[in-house]
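hey so i finally got around to running the thing on that chain from the lab meeting. sorry it took forever, my laptop kept dying and i had to restart like 3 times. anyway pasting the input first so we r on the same page abt which one it is
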Amino acid sequence: MAPEQATDSETDAAYEELERRIEQITNIGNAAGILRWDQEVVMPEGGTPARAKQLSTLSSLSHELLTEDRTGELLEALEAADLEDEKAAVVRETRRQYDRATSVPQELVEEISETTSNAHPTWVEAKENDDFSVFEPTLEKLVELKKAYANHIDPDADPYEVLFADYEPYLDLETAEQVLERLRDELVPLLEAIDDSDTDIETDAFAGTFDDDDQEALARDVLDSLGYQWDRGRLDTAPHPFSSGTQFDARVTTRFDESDLLGSITSTIHEFGHANYTLGLPDEGYGTPLGESRDLTVHESQSRLWENHVGRSRPFWEHFLPTARERFPELENVTPEEAYESANQVYDDNLIRVEADELTYHLHIVVRFEIERDLISGDLEVSDVPEAWNDKYEEYLGIRPETDAEGCLQDIHWSHGSFGYFPTYSLGSVLAAQLYATVEDELGSLDDRTREGEFDDLNGWLREHIHAHGKRYTTPDLVEEATGEGYTADYFLEYVKGKYGELYDLEAY
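ok and heres what got predicted. didnt touch it at all, straight out
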């Protein structure tokens, strides 16, 4: 006999129980997030051993709660029920978490958590001392741990594909590879044309020495201008800028270099984009997937949209340059056009990803993607990473790092065990252009509004079409809902070819 269909009241009770369980798991994760923020921003160096154990304990508690038999029983009952779309999405997302978590032994989860906590100060030490060998044993251990993790989830799959799905579960690895290949194939000729161009643009509008305290004040001005919700956030500094939190508390970090004012501005805008997305998630969805961001491609699309389509635009500098002049009178003779040109210059000698221009940035991503893919597949030994890194930089960017700090130690991600993360930066940049084109198609050009410092219309559109949905839709479905078409690199390539063709006076573009 077929099993009896659950009554509506039984289904409601099961859903409420599952939701309570998810909220507990979410709160444990958010508490861990605050501890990680503290570790990277204000924790004293000596706190690492205790912090590693604290995070490991929270990870263990979350894992136990998620993988309990009762979670599986509730999911089975609800999957057999006729649920409304939002509840079905919660079940779908929880099922995915449950299936992956129950595949991984708890002791491995704890070991990964403790290892990544201890890895952070080791990475910092290695970078500060410009010595990859300090970090090498830790990286080797993390590679092996993450390979074991992937093998437990799906022993028949490419382990890198399994790891990539932790950050982007609904756009497959093949799509990521195709996008990266297309960007590489179409951006390299564009970069060569720029290199051959005789057009001189302003590159030194922001040259000088700028006090850190004054830069922080200007960073706060930027956040004020864009509409950051200070009652639900804060600004701090970190060696590697990041944003973290919830819709009730989404924090921004940036960094200051007295010789790089522009870098602190663009970094702050980038992290604002992340925090703004988090703050736009529905309050009522907190504790469930409906109140969580839709994975990293979408998250990165928000930061890149604000950083590049807004913060590097002509209208933005017409709007914001007077404020910058108030903080730094030495910018008095800089024009908005000169600021725009300096903000969009293409560097032919930059080694640092977070300081890269909008075009070469994606070649930085290709380098990381290829190296970590080879590490996970076993085609590259950890000890060979510095040389492989330097060779690829020379091949793709025409420059060779002279130090590990400027080379393979510059990013924090591998110390977090985040293999598979890097492709989402380029995937997000591609989506940012598609979303921005859709906004302008629906609302008209945003130039005048940006020039006046009016960002409510743009932010309102993003709130309605992206932020408010949380994880209700998969990434492809969200893109379809927001733009009316599938995910495509066409808009990004059209955008950069038009922008840089005009900037560098390229006839072919």
